[in-house]
Model the fold of this input.
Amino acid sequence: MWRRFLCILCFSFWLPSTWVHAKEIALTFDDAPRASSQCLDAATRSQLLIQQLQQAAGVPAMFMVTTNNIAKQGNQALKAYVQAGHLLGNHSHSHQHPETLGLDGYLADVRQSHEQLLAWAAYRPYYRFPFLNEGRTIAMRDGLRKGLSEIGLTQAYVTIDNYDWYIDQQLQNALQQQQAVDIQALGDWYVEEMMKSIRFYDDIAVKHIGRSPKHVLLLHENDVAALFLGDLIKALTAEGWRLISPIEAYQDPIASGLPDTLFNNQGRVAALARLQGVKKRDLVPLNEEESYLDEKFKRRVLKHGSDANNEALITRCRALQPR
Ligand SMILES: [Zn+2]
Done:
């Protein structure tokens, strides 16, 4: 009897705990297919991403395509992702703000990318707003929501915003300026900051939504992801996270219904917390401040006192294989 009682006790604690702290996360990569950089040519970058995504053991990632990039870069990288079992989503044709194009112009741009992407069997009609800008007025936001729905698109929201794009830009700037970069330190720091963002938004979810939803991580198809994604996946696994498909993530209850707020550019968890009265400043992590990232990059990643050798660094960068 005691054993049965203990089991009931154990079950009643175990179930809510796994639900509250589910730790499930999907990977999405914006802006594909991006151009070659000083560090990685586009083909190497996509191969590195694919190799490291193999750690996800059959769980697909979603590459959010900006179709104007296909005109510039070709579709080789996208073909490689699809062949490796990954999915494609929509990230507009020309990657602009709604306020720049106006409502009708913006929706025409989205329709153009949607029609182009329909030719790909791996395309799933999910739309990721560039800059996570869902419209800065209620009229624009609601016009976009209605227009996307008429096109047949569902919002590909993120739950975990971060500044991975800025860290990549810091790397590119350092290479450009012939500054010596400690690539190992960059990898360690990148993973550290990404994990901070993941914990930050998961904590907000548990506190204000009452549970850890199926998360969607914002990443970009950039060099830092290509170089260090394997390390990031290892860090996630070590903290008990399980990778899931973005399609599964978008089945979470937080996907049903669009938050009645204009505070959408930090992702869905932040938007829902904002609706509960949480202050905006408490929904943006410190590592989205450029001054913070600049100071960290300078202190941890730049090699002071060493001779900057751009060529040697770039050669090393290109020769890097997933760790
Ligand atoms: Zn983008």
